[in-house]
Amino acid sequence: MDQVAAAQFANFIARFYQNLATQVGNYLHENIGKIPDDSFTILSNDQTRLISYSNTFFALSDTIAFEGADLYFKKVQNATDDINDALKTIQKVDTVITIAANFIALAGGIVSKNTSMITTALTALKGAVKL
Amino acid sequence: MIMPLSLRNLILLFFCAAAFAGCANLKEVNAFAVGSRQTLDKQRSEDFGYYAYYHDSTYLYHYLPDHLRDVDCHCEAEKQADAHIAGEYNQLSAYFAALARFADAGASFNFAPIGSPVPAGTYGHVHFSAQEASYSAYVARALSTLTTTGYKAKKIRVFMTEYRDSVAPLIMLLKIRADNLAGRMVNLQLQLDHAADSLISYAADKAVKMPVLFVYEQKRKELDASLAHYQQRVHELETIIAGGQLIVDNLDNLHSKTFKDKMMSFVNALALNYH
């Protein structure tokens, strides 16, 4: 994977996490005062972590790449396309919380270059979207 | 032997046409190079960069400090990163000035000092990879060759080989970097929304809500303006990349009307943004 391709993937994944953080933010904005305080706190913290990971990916740029990264990045890219569509229709707060948590785990896997963590998080995400 | 007048006129006409066609062949390339240079110079002089971003992010991501010192910005390294990025812009601007001068012998430019290539390293939160540093060094070397005596004898193919090997990747990396910073500004806005939403919804004292709202609206407008500049910057760099690629792809076809029309569409797009 060359430098430009790696930097472009980092930008793509950073934008994806930004999109997730925006959706969680919109959800909170619409439901603040309506959802239980503990759910608000969990999602609010998750949004902060999603923003933080988005910033991390923007900063990592080309240094995101690792040996054999192409294969895992392709899997992540495919999963994000499917999940993006599914997210638009999710209304239940518990599902939003589960998905956000799994995305945080996925981001941890990418940042730490841990391939088994990436695979586990992707599998969990596919299950969570079907909830 | 005396040449008939009509034949002499015909030969004269042919030479004039050839000379005119020779200039006109590169007129569009010259216009594109001039437009690209102006755009790069404008972007280099814009004042919102990594230093300004980290200054804002220091207090926006820590909006309830115990002390003012908790939100002090230790951002000197980011200032240096901004200077290195300005250096890259300077190199690219000099390249397009050289290309413009080559494409139109009558054009004259004052070349600013090109400066040293950007060294690899990490400056606060900003990383310059070894590959990026090598592109920058390559552009610096190419510029000294392209702008020294005898440059007029060089072929456009030489200019575009340098373009393909080092100038284009460096512009692409600058574009990704600008897009990354634009993305981080969006995150800053999300954080600002998040902080304002929480403070307004949960403020114990209702009187606090109005100042929070007013400061929020003011900062939001400021960030919107900086973000718009960066989105514009990304768009302009994409136009330069596409225009450069068009020349590379048409090196044997610079006379065609299709090429000239496409080239002028890039020139017009750059001019529209510039003004």
Describe the structure.
The complex is a heterodimer of chains A (about 130) and B (about 280). Chain A is mainly α and about 130 residues long. Chain A has one domain (about 5-130). Chain A has five helices and no strands. Chain A has helices spanning about 5-30, 35-60, 70-85, 95-110, 115-130. In chain A, helix 1 (about 5-30) runs antiparallel to helix 2 (about 35-60), helix 2 (about 35-60) packs parallel to helix 4 and helix 4 (about 95-110) packs antiparallel against helix 5. The longest helix of chain A has 29 residues, at about 5-30. Chain A is globular. Chain A starts with a helix and ends with a helix. The mean pLDDT of chain A is about 85. In chain B, helix 2 runs parallel beside helix 5. The longest helix of chain B has about 45 residues, at about 155-200. Chain B is elongated, with a radius of gyration of 25 Å. The N and C termini of chain B lie far apart (about 60 Å).
What is the total tally of β strands of chain B? 2
Please, how many domains of chain B?
A: 1
Greatest interface (CB-CB under 8 A), with counts per chain: A-B, 27 and 25 residues
Domain count of chain A, please report it.
1
Radius of gyration of chain B in whole Å, from Cα?
25 Å
Taking the alpha carbons of the first and last residues of chain B, their distance comes to 59 Å
Number of helices of chain A: 5
Helix count of chain B equals 7
**Describe the biggest sheet of chain B?**
2 strands, antiparallel
Let me know the number of strands of chain A.
0
